[in-house]
Amino acid sequence: MFAFVDTDFIVVVSFLFFFIGILLRLTDSSASVFLKNKIFVESSYVSKSTIRTYLKKTKDGCAFKKSLKRLLLWRKLHDFFMMFFAVFFLLAVIKSIVPLTN
Predict the structure, then answer these.
(1) What percentage of the chain reaches a pLDDT higher than 90?
(2) Which segments in the chain show pLDDT lower than 70?
(3) Which end of the chain is more exposed for a tag (fewer CB within 10 A), N or C?
(4) Spatial distance between the Cα atoms of 45 and 42, rounded to a whole number of angstroms
(5) With contact defined as beta carbons under 8 Å apart, do 47 and 79 qualify?
């Protein structure tokens, strides 16, 4: 399937996904969004379930609700890129261990 793709290219792409995922995580400002709205949180990494709970409690059209939706989007993007990193990295490892011959 991936016989035409070089292993080095797959490793580079996987680490590109990793770095994008890390950048998304580092720019996560979930705690500051809660603190700006006078909601105390115990850690800087607020769980998805907590964000969803406050999303349900908040009325529509509120700036806080828009911020919570944006936080969930960033979290999903972070998860997406980290998942693709894992898939591509495993693919590179498998391809280097088991050489494909035609």
Answers:
(1) 24
(2) 1-4, 99-102
(3) C
(4) 9
(5) no
For the chain, what are the domain ranges? 29-91
* Residues 6+ positions from 15 with CB-CB distance below 8 Å: 85, 89
Residue 102, burial from CB neighbour count under 10 angstroms (0-12, 13-18, 19+)? exposed
Token output for 1: 């399937």
pTM of the predicted model as reported, rounded to 2 decimal places: 0.77
Residue pLDDT, tens place only, 28-52: 778 888 888 888 877 777 888 888 8
